[in-house]
Protein 1
Amino acid sequence: MVVIRRTMSENVYEQNQSSSAATAEPGHAVGFVATEKNTEALLRAILRAQERGYDVFVATLGESDGESTRFAKQLGAKVVPLRTDELAPETLRRCLSVAAEEADFSSLLIHPDIEKRIDYDRSAELLDSEDFCIDAAIKAEASSDALAPEIVVGIPAYNEEQTIASVVEKSLPVADEVLVVDDGSQDETATLAAAAGATVIEHETNSGYGAALQTTFEEAHTRNADRLVVIDADGQHDPTDIPRIVEAQKESESELVIGSRFADDGDTDAPLYRRFGLTIVNLLTNLSFGVIRPRSWVSDTQSGFRAYNQRAIESLATDDGIGNNMSASTDILHHAHSNGYEVEEVGTTIDYDVENASNQHPVSHGITLVSNILQTVEHERPITSLGIPGFLSSFVGLGFGYWTFSNYIASGTFPMGLAITSAFFGLAGIFACFTAIILHSLKQHLDD
């Protein structure tokens, strides 16, 4: 079961106010109406208005302590409580106008339907009118996905209470939404992430890194996000690199962009044994794709710093082939290869000098990855992985068989050791060849 906690903290407001480029003249405000059903749209509308330099008034119907009201206050909006669940539009306009006039504002844009976006450029022209209360101009292209975020930053997390707040806070200025998937943490990861301004999705039990990624893809797809950038929760990745990776994806139109330790301008302070292990895993992963030329290889197959476009988000959200454990990174690359995605790498720095940099032992992690790669190769390329080795094994068995009978004819003594060796290689090779043929036939049948 997944529990969704949507939280926008005061941190969002503070960062938004400090970084926004105001376009409204002092004294102008926008009026919204809060209901029980429009909380999320209201928060985004408030943030967009504040980015444009407008003060915000929010009329609340019914309960004055509802979720919409609390969040509006946290974002710095001026709340106008109304003691009824329903009012005529003209009455709402009058109540908001009175509140804005009493606060000495020179004009008020009224926008009751916050499911549609305000065209602030056109609305600014209307402010020259002598009327105090003006209907906001609506964007002509507003549609069902008008509120879809452009960039969602996804952060899978498990017991990361020491670092999660810092990672979220650094990600907020470069994202439309920060989404933390808490994979059954036993500490305060979810609470601290929500307090820092993230939307938190909680797994009731620890299901694994791959399961957290799957939830991240599903949530991004539900939001119709243009791009999903996934980073680690332990602070190894630098969120300030996100705009550079997103820009590279826009320019190349690649479905997947990887923040690589080993690409140009990339760097890492990984220990020598980790570098060696990564080299082996990168080699096996690229060979499993059937890519022979090193120039065409993905240099950092295990980097968790990745940007996905809308096509990749949609297909990964519905792919049951992504494993639940740490091998999910490799599974995603196989998905990308199978679907013909363009994969680009951008150099980035991955810092291992952080506390709790990895929750899994590197040796067990490496064994899991190699095992997963071999299983994938066996499934995807049975002729290559089983057929060719099986043929070679049969040929070796035939050689040992010839040696066995040559010795027997020359000495009159039957060499049992050579005979057993010949039988082993011969039977193993024949079995591997037949298995390869069967798996290849099944794969062709399933593909058709």
Protein 2
Amino acid sequence: MTKLTIPVRKLAVTAPCEGLIPASELADYLKAGDIIAKAQGRAAQLRRSAQKHLSSVVQQCADAREKARQEALAKVEQETPALRQQAVANTIQWLVAEHELESNIVQRLEPRLRSLMAQVTEEFFRQQDSTRLLMDRLRPALDRLLNEDAGTLQVNPQQWEALHQSFAAYPSLRVQSCDHIAEGQAILITPLIYMSLDLEEQLDSILSRLKHVSEEAADDYSQD
């Protein structure tokens, strides 16, 4: 096809009122727009790259934390028997130390406690009715010994009435008043046994043992 070349000298349109943009300036605008578009594309690319790198770093940190946690758990698991053994050893050592401290305190207090016990025992005995004490001491022996065999209980005349009434439930027992027997004393006679009871003598024996043990403990304490 042959191209026709028709010169246009005049257009049947009205020219724009505004100023015309020179072709060179329009070319600059177009070039600037292209630069901006390229810059925006580059920026978007950088953002995507940065986001990808950030995600990678976050994942690496998570992996590092998990690895450290696993290593710590493995180390704890390996060291647990030793730590448990050490804890048991420390506990045993503490218990031994506490026991030694307790024993030391007891050793130092025991002489004073025994001395105080002796004092309280004697005061308690002096405050009691010796007749009542005789009843309490004799009743278990009578229950045990006087099943069928008859027996005689020799007591002080001042205590005869009370003891006679107290042991009236034992028909095979005869309570006898004897001048040679002091208050707090009694003698039980059966075909099989002869039992002498002296409350004052028993008290002296108890106090003597307490005093002897207290002196021994005091000597051991002074040597320590």
Protein 3
Amino acid sequence: MEKGQKFVRFKDWRSESSLSTEQNDPDSNEFHKGEVKLNPVTDGANKSMASRRKVLDPQGSLLQKWNKIFVITCFLAISVDPLFLYIPVINEQRKCLDLSGKLLKIIACVLRTFFDIFYVLRIIFKFRTGFIAPSSRVFGRGELVDDPVAIAKKYLSSYFIIDILSIIPLPQMAILAAIAIPQYSAPHMAKMMLKYIIIAQYVPRSLRIYPLYKEVTRTSGILTETAWAGAAFNLFLYILASHVVGSFWYMFSVESEVRCWHRQLKNTTFSHDSFISCGVKDNPTVLSLLNRPISCPHKDPDDTTDPTFFNFGIFMEALKPGLVNSDTDFTDKIYYSFWWGLRSVSSVGQNLQTSTYSGEITFAIFISISVLVLFTSLIGNMQKYLQSTTVRVEEMRIKRRDAEHWMSHRMLPDYLKERVRRYDQYKWQKNRGVEEETLIRNLPKDLRRDIKRHLCLDLLKKVPMFENMNKQLLDAMCDRLRPVLYTEKSDIIREGDPVDEMLFIMRGILATATTNGGRTGFFNSFVLKAGDFCGEELLTWALDPNTSPNLPISTRTVQTISEVEAFALTAEDLNLVASQFRRLINSKQLQHTFRQDLIYISFPFLCKNISLHFLDSVTQFYSLQWRTWAACFIQATWRRYLKKKAKRSLRAAEDRLRAFANADGSSPSIGAVIYASRFSSNLLRSLRRSKRNKMPHTRKVLPLLPRKPSEPDFTTKEK
């Protein structure tokens, strides 16, 4: 190693994820300049490390999303498979078994291949998905096994065989084989192959859904995000069952017609399957035998007494209207078969009137048993999903009923009952029964802090005292804020009551007023809106190191004008945060923050006549208490100024008149002197009368000046 290298950094390749975060961190570039990476000893180890980085976490968000996609595609895949059962058709004119046109074959094969691709992706994902070691589940989540060999062994010993059997393209191969083999036996071979292939593959394709569904619900808890989506999913299962039952009913209807033909040709030389396939040339003898009125008539058993009559049973409804004929459009076949399956599933097979044929009876028994099992599951799931949407409504109804009984038992007056009902209604409209505080309290500390910061930080910074507060203290205050709701005309704080909390308004309008202790002729009011706060007496009380342990007394009454949603900070929490705030910010900065230039904004016309020292003494932080006191103080000062001005004017007028009356020799006549004397007397009398009228008003104003709010003593140091 060179001398310039100061350190060696060892990387834990086992803990690295597939996407390195170090490459995207610009702050770590300087650190990487001096590091020495130790290369693996062998190429095999390097390949092993690279392969382990590609292992997927079974509880990761990426795999959870893909698992939900796989569940949906599995259900869609088993809904596509019944389309192959509609390929065999009956040619009624030629009395033979045929295959449908190319369009249905192409649609069925393409859709089946498309959904099989998702099965292949699922197999690839399983070979790359780790698992939790059972021995490590004693504490916590457990250790993730990321060894590819162990993962492959576990998958090969569990569901690998089922997955392989599910994706083998046997229906597509059956269609290709029917095209390749000689035409005289193609329809019959295709019908038999498709029937047994679909039945055989339906078992593994259906069984694979259950463990995949359990895996999704185990990792994410739910398959659908909303209750209505869950109900719709269960309804889809009901529709899927009807579609599957209808498709098999169509296939067995075709078989019943072929079985009747075999019965009519049983004792002849034309009983081989090739004679009832449309691939060979029409045989007149076969047509004459099958076209007889008594051969295979599509009649109800009650309409004939012939003992040799062939009873088609539950398949008569498909044969009589010609549903299985080759000239019927395949969409009509699918829709009518689905309708028959829906009726049978809805009635649990009770409407099925079967013949004595064992295969038909077995099919009816299968419908009844499978539908009973399906109903048991679907009814429970549907009830669970639908009740989840109304459970909170039911809880609210029970709480309201209990509240009504309690209010009646305590004989509360009607206006109090109405206020209780209004509060419950407003609380329900706001959060729909969700206990917001409980929900946030159950979250991790960091997530709870981020949510509270998002909800409350802007409101806290509306208070000038909190603008420069330390980030940790702001987070502590946000964490202690609790949401509160108030209905219209509610008294939040009353004048003269102790202030026990500070409110930060989110929504609504409040009116705050004071009468200066109930004095006659004094009234001051403000309107508070979203973003404002009240209960600021607590802030002064909490910031003063020498404050009394008793809570401050409110100087204002705060009443809601509309419904109000706010956050509350209790006196105990505010006192704790304020004590820490004093330690982080020096006294001068705190005092500078505490004083604001509100008078410059509210009373600009007075700024020229009032000294800056006076402004600094009366303009405290944006508090209604200080603003009210400042306004009253300015009004009193302005009246004193007007009084002094009136006195100066009166004194100047008296001096001028006295000088005019005592003038010697300058008067032109004795009459002018007498007139001037009378004029001065009248003027002095009017000025004295004006003085007497103004003096009592001034004396009334000065005593009405409210008490100056207390100001914290920042010079005193806490012990």
Protein 4
Amino acid sequence: MPDHICTSCGHVDSDSIIEPKPEEKKDKFPRKIIRDNREFDNTYHPGVDNADLVHEVHRVRVSHCKPYPTLSQIETIQGRSNPKLLCHNCGWNTGHELSAGGYTSRLKVAYLRDNSAIWDLGPNGPWMLRDENNNSTDVWKKDYAAQRFIREKKPSIPLVEMHKYGGLNDKFHFTIMSRAKGSTIKAIWDTLTREQMSDVLQDLREHIKQWRQITSPQMQRVDGSELRDAYIGNCTGFGCIKTGHNEEEWLENLTPAMRKSMLWDLWIMNKGWNADQTVLGSWIIEVDEKVAQLKANFPRGGPYVLTHGDLHTENIFISDDNPEKKFKVSAIIDWELAGFFPWWVERFRAELPESAWEILGDDTDFHHPGYSEKKDLKDIWKPVGDVKDKWFEGGNHGWSKHGLHQANRWYRKPFCACKPYAQEYRDSSLGWEQEHMDVFDIDSSDSEDDQKEEDKRFSRRERQFFRWFKEISNHN
């Protein structure tokens, strides 16, 4: 009986595979073998390791690598005439694998994000391919729109070249984009001299000042649609809470999580499950007053400036491949969170080396006309931080819900019997809306049933609190 059947290709492992007879590699070969022996050249077969190949010259093995198990003649014929899928991502099948001559794909997955990916078009080639969904949940869709906008408004800002393919109603879009020249700041920053660091940062400063000259009378994306919060209400990393068009609307959307945070503190410290309605009502009044004070202290005022929203050392490429032979910014990537925010968001959100801010400094043109880093950032750091902290305590991923909160999961059959890695699909990657919810039905994810307490997402006291919080939120 066979040991098992490969679930991908259907081949059995012990009955149909012919084990080769033991063969020792010869130390001496006939003249024609020595004459015609060549090393494998992987120039056109990127990723193929010569050490893994069994090498024969005139049907005589010359490599140290011993022969692998082979298929029977019948299975070889069947594999070619009735191909079976080997890779569900690229479509590679047994017919392809058994084809004479050998083909190696020059397209390789370089980066994954949910149900989208970036492919290398050739090893370190000048172009890459972005394969993405065309729906409202795809963040890369916003990246293309933002870069197109900036390219039109400020063509001097270094961006990668992009060519997008796909219609408005197509389910998928494909974007050919140039590979960013040079290296990320993170990759080589510690190898630069102080002078080279200064060259990079002065150049970066000029580019930031350029895009910050673009303003809007209201908070919005570059296409006029509603922003996702890149700084405070951002539990997913890709913008979560909607901001509305000004600080008042933004704060209103942040309020449920702030209330939840402070009410939970009172609930758990004072055994809210035993409290009467009078006590519970007093907590609501107390918390609402504190939230109102947090909102009153929050900085306000436009115009709102174009903000990258995710400026860090892996999103900035630098190179000295220029006429001056100085390190300069060669590309700024990942604009999916970009939009018109209050002037201070870029400074608070950016993650640059501390030495960067010594050079970028407190130039008023860099931040916003009429503002300076030394005075105004110091004044608003605490009120913004207070709102951010309280929102996170009540709105973070563990205390909120997104869509169905991945209630549904599907698993493919294992990739192959000898490599039993199984793909998992989640409802969050099917194009379904994943709206952030601070008020939700606890029973939809953690009901009172026979499930063990330690297996539940929330504890018993937390579930009691969430039900009460939903009740009072619906009454407001």
